[in-house]
Amino acid sequence: MPEAWKIANVPGPERAVVIADPARIVTMIREAKRPLLVVGHQAIEMKAGNQGLIKLITEMAEMKITIVATAHTVKAFITEGYHPAAWMGVVDLTNRFSDLTWTGFDGKGSYDIIMFIGIPYYLQSQMLSTLKHFAPDLLTVSLDRHYHPNADWSFPNLSEEEWQTSIEKIVKELQGQS
Predict the structure, then answer these.
(1) E strand map for 79-136
(2) Torsion, CA 169, CA 170, CA 175, CA 178, rounded to 10
């Protein structure tokens, strides 16, 4: 079992399953009825291969994945010519995800899998801990390169190159290019 990237992160007995093969996440996304991707501000500076991560994420939106921008990330999406489903702070998002009566951004019901990328580690850790305890039926996936034990699924601690390869593989397989 990998250790949390920040050693002060004490998750308890239930820990995230390690994403050993990105194809497993692709299968989970394809089987989901309402997948959602929450994109934090760190994604603006991240690269995945030859392109910026924001550009790659906009390609994921074409695959019926609802995208939510946090912080000032919305500007980067609009620059790419994409308008996310919502723009909202991460604390407010966490509160909505743990509200059993919330019907999503489109009013069609809650989301069955929520993925997180580009959110600072310390903040994402607390979000995932909250969701683990107050929204236990919600499947959470951290797509960042550091292990998040409070998620249901998380990459292990990866080098930047390994992480970029994994993210590219997820997008390519979702597009059917693998």
Answers:
(1) 86-87, 113-117
(2) 40
Domain borders along the chain are: 17-174
> pLDDT-derived band of residue 11, with 50, 70 and 90 as boundaries?
low
Q: Scanning the structure block, which residue is given the tokens 């994109």? A: 39
CB 126 within 8 A of CB 134: no
Q: Is the pLDDT of residue 130 over 90?
A: yes
User: What class does CATH assign to 17-174?
Assistant: alpha beta
What's the predicted TM-score (pTM) here?
0.91
What is the total residue count of the chain?
178
Q: Distance (Å, rounded) from C-alpha 106 to C-alpha 33?
A: 14
pLDDT, residue 8, reads: 62
